[in-house]
Amino acid sequence: MSNLPESTPAVLASDYFDGYSVVGLLAVIGVLFVAVAFGAGRLLRPVVPTPEKLLTYECGVDPVGEGWAHTQVRYYVYAFLYVIFAVDSIFLFPWATVFAAPGYGATTLIEMFIFLGFLAVGLLYAWKKGVLEWT
Secondary structure of 58-83 in the HEC alphabet? Predict the structure, then answer.
C-alpha cells in the first residue's frame, strides 16, 4: 500500500487532462471562428445569379474544347520524390537531437544510415528506370 491519499490519482488525472482541455478549447474557438466567418460571408454577400456567372472558366478564360486534358506523369513523379525527401529532412532534425544525447550515438547513427539507405535504394531505382530524365 502506498502512503499517498486516495484522492491523489484523481488529482493526477485532473492535471493530466488540463493540457487536453486547453487544446480542446482552442479547437472549439477555431471552429467557431471559421463558422462565424463563413456565416457572415453568406449573409453579407450579394446574390445575383446571371448566365455569365454560371459559366465554367479557368483563370478568367472561357473554356474551349473538351474538358479533358492530358497531364504528364513525370510531374507527379517529381512531386512524389520531393515529398519523400521533404519527409526525410523532417526526420533528420529529431534524429540529430537524439544523436547528441549521451548513450544513443551509435544506435541512432546505425538507424539513420539504414533509413538513408532505404531512401538511396529508392532513388537509385527511380534513376535506373529513367524516371528522373525530363525528356
Answer: ECCECCCCCCCCCCCHHHHHHHHHHH
Cell of 24: 480542446
Q: Which long-range contacts (CB under 8 A, 24 or more apart) does 55-58 make?
A: none
Q: Is the model more confident about 77 or about 128?
A: 128
Average pLDDT, the chain: 79
The string over 1-40, giving b where at least 16 C-beta atoms fall within 10 Å of a residue's C-beta and e elsewhere, is eeeeeeeeeeeeeeeeeeeeeeeeeeeeeeeeeeeeeeee
| Cα radius of gyration rounded to whole Å, the chain | 28
* pLDDT score recorded for residue 3: 58
Helix, strand, coil percentages (3-state) for the chain, rounded to 5, are 65, 0, 35
- Tell me, what's the pLDDT at 94? 78
Residue type, 39: G
Confidence at residue 31, expressed as pLDDT on a 0 to 100 scale = 97
Does the model's pTM come out above 0.70? no
